[in-house]
Amino acid sequence: MPHQPQHPHLDPRSPLVLETRDLPRRPGALHAVRRSVPAPEDLGLELIGVPQGAELDLQLRMESVSEGVLVSGTVTGPLVGECGRCLRPISDTLDVPIQEFYAYEHSTTDETTDEDEVGRLQGDLIDLEPALRDAVVLSLAANPVCREDCPGLCPECGTPIDELPEGHTHEQLDPRWAALSQIKTSEE
Ligand SMILES: [Zn+2]
Ligand SMILES: [Zn+2]
User: Fold this and answer.
1) Alpha-carbon Rg of the chain, whole angstroms?
2) SS3 92
3) Ligand 1 mean position to 76 CA, how many Å?
4) Sign of CA dihedral 149, 93, 144, 88
5) CA–CA distance from 22 to each of 30, 32, 62, 73, 125 (Å)?
6) If you measure from the C-alpha of residue 164 to the centroid of ligand 2, how many angstroms do you get, rounded to a whole number?
7) At 4, is the pLDDT very low, low, confident or very high (cuts 50, 70, 90)?
8) d(CA 134, ligand 1 centre) in Å
9) CB hemisphere CA count around 165 (13 angstroms)
10) How confident is the model at residue 1 (pLDDT cuts 50, 70, 90)?
11) Which bound ligand lies closest to the C-alpha atom of 143?
12) Nearest ligand to residue 83 Cα
């Protein structure tokens, strides 16, 4: 059988791949990375997220530490979604911190931890996408609202309550009349 690489091959030109070749492997060495990248698909939750292809702004620094590279910084970009109460569109700005450690291949950390615990460099490359997804998804509300006190929809007609006149109600059969009409029915 041909040798199967442990990781799919990373493309150094991919916008979410960081190249560390120019970062000295000496603890304390720093490299700033600032780039705008198109958002990958499905970056978010069901009701809110970053539209695919929207511009994400990455302001990162890569820092050499003894066993690998620490990437930290912020990710900003546009958010669009739907209010979980009134279903009206929401637009907002994403601004989340990101911090992830990537161990050098064959370092002690690499040999002694699971891959889902600690990230890994792949050669000189870092795949930023999983950490980016985690940072973005964890920052989002599963049930976003257009504003904290959004009253939602009228359960009868589905109109947003704050667009309805005060005292909006729907005709409801008075329970006493309902009881009377039942008596009438049984007399017939
Ligand atoms: Zn709302
Ligand atoms: Zn109504």
Assistant:
1) 27
2) strand
3) 24
4) positive
5) 10, 11, 11, 19, 11
6) 8
7) very low
8) 26
9) 4
10) very low
11) 1
12) 1
DSSP bridge pairs for 98: 73
Residue 3: partners with Cβ closer than 8 Å, 6 or more residues away: none
Indicate the SS3 state at residue 181: helix
Q: How far is the CA of 172 from the centre of ligand 1 (A)?
A: 26
Structure tokens at 147: 């504003």
List CB contacts of 140: < 8 A, sequence separation 6 or more.
Answer: 44, 45, 48, 49, 79
Neighbours of 140 (CB within 10 A): 20
* Two structure tokens written together for 91: 């637009």
- Stretch 54-65: mean pLDDT, rounded? 98
Query: Which residue has tokens 């669009």?
Result: 80
Q: Confidence class of residue 9 from pLDDT cuts 50, 70 and 90?
A: confident
Grouping H, G, I as helix, E, B as strand and the rest as coil, residue 33 is strand
